[in-house]
Amino acid sequence: MTSEKVIEVKNLVKKFGSFVANDNLSFDVYRGEIFGFLGANGAGKTTALRILSGLSKPSSGDVRVAGLDIYRHAEKVKKHIGYMCQKFSLYEDLTVAENIMLYGGIYGLSKKIIENRASTLLESLNFTSYRKNIIGSLPLGMRQKLAFAVAILHDPDIVFLDEPTGGVDPITRRQFWEMIYKASSDGITVFVTTHYMDEAEYCDRVSIMSEGRIVAIDSPDELKKRYGASSVQDVFVKIARPSNYSPNNN
Ligand code: ATP
């Protein structure tokens, strides 16, 4: 991780009608950092992530991604980022090779570069023999690892991962995180939302959101010290609980 800021957010507000989904968020993320974006369901994580990836406009506030102003350069921002989420990643009715070609093309890479990167990618994942398999026929964990590799095919500055390991078994999740470490050491910033608190422990820093606000942001070790907790899970339970929480309705 370097001291170069690749995401700069100041006083970000996003409203849907009178409902405030992101309430005055301010934070920076650095090149190569693994940044965990945590919060209970409905805290406002996906809303912020969609703004940072140029898919939605803020109601107010300053947001720069890869040095670009999100209001003026949302389309350019998209060239500097990769995006994957649990619900949508690869096209299920296309083969592994067809998905790589398709996304490489969308990212503006030449056929030759895509073919070279595809071979390296498939070899590193041990997926070479699956290149002609339909995505829908592959196990979820394999699909998600492939989706991550495809999301960084164009060597972006930042990759946004929205619950990328939801429903994936622990061994595959661990392998997925090895891929995240490798991307980070190659200088790619990894911005990840997760509900798995063991994964939060793997991040350089985590931000914890509750009801649209960031209530804590720091390294896992600092947060544990500050809140006298033995794990990020304990910190999370202490501070991320919505104000209407009741053990009977959760
Ligand atoms: P989860 O962990 O469940 O994915 P989240 O932290 O990503 O939750 P968001 O999806 O950002 O939460 O939603 C935050 C709040 O904003 C929720 O109350 C949601 O209902 C509301 N919201 C999100 N998108 C819209 C929209 N397009 N119109 C109205 N309300 C919305």
Helix content: 25-40%
Q: How widely separated are the two ends?
A: 38 Å
Number of helices: 9
Calculate Rg over CA atoms: 18 Å
What does this structure look like?
The protein is an alpha/beta fold and 250 residues long. The chain has one domain (32-52, 80-239): P-loop containing nucleotide triphosphate hydrolases (Rossmann fold), CATH 3.40.50.300. The protein is built from 9 helices and 10 strands. Strands 6-7-8-3-9-10 form a 6-stranded mixed sheet, sandwiched between helices. A 4-stranded antiparallel sheet has the order 2-1-4-5. The mean pLDDT is 92.
Summarize this, please?
With 250 residues, this protein is of the alpha/beta class.
Characteristic terms for this protein:
binds adenosine-5'-triphosphate; four-stranded antiparallel β-sheet; 9 helices; six-stranded mixed β-sheet; 26% strand; 250 residues; alpha/beta; Rossmann fold
Topology:
Elements lengths: L4 E12 L2 E12 L3 E6 L5 H8 L7 E6 L2 E2 L4 H6 L1 E5 L10 H11 L4 H14 L15 H12 L6 E5 L7 H16 L3 E5 L3 H5 L3 E6 L2 E6 L1 H7 L5 H8 L11
Parallel strand pairs: 3-8, 3-9, 6-7, 7-8
Antiparallel strand pairs: 1-2, 1-4, 4-5, 9-10
Helix pairs in contact: 3-4, 5-6
The structure holds adenosine-5'-triphosphate.
